[in-house]
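Recall the central idea of this unit: under ordinary conditions, the amino acid sequence of a chain determines the structure it adopts. In this exercise we apply that idea directly, starting from the sequence alone.
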Amino acid sequence: MGDVIIVEDDLLLAKLFEKRLISLGYNVIQEWVTTGEAAVRSIVKYKPDLVLMDIKIQGKVDGIEAVKRARQQVDFPVIFMSGNSEPIMKERASDTEYLAYLNKPFSMEDLEEALQKLYCNS
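Accordingly, the structure predicted from this sequence is:
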């Protein structure tokens, strides 16, 4: 179905997402990305078909800023994940024209519904 980069600093969550994406036929790039800076490098290097991006991650660059920086070099769809339900975060993310914005905790069905948008927008 396509190559996916998961940017998540919680290893357990990253592995859960990875397992689910693989079961749905995606190829998860096997590089655990935990910081915004590493996310930009990984996205530019691998040019994924999709990025699953946590907003609050380690490092000086958050997920929203990492997407903006990576998009200066590569175009890709993004699904944001956030434990922060404050409207200001979603508003900041809106500049990125994200595919979906999932508030944690979310179900795997919510993730699958977000993934369907990828094919509706193609």
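The beta strands are 3-7, 27-28, 50-54, 78-82, 100-103.
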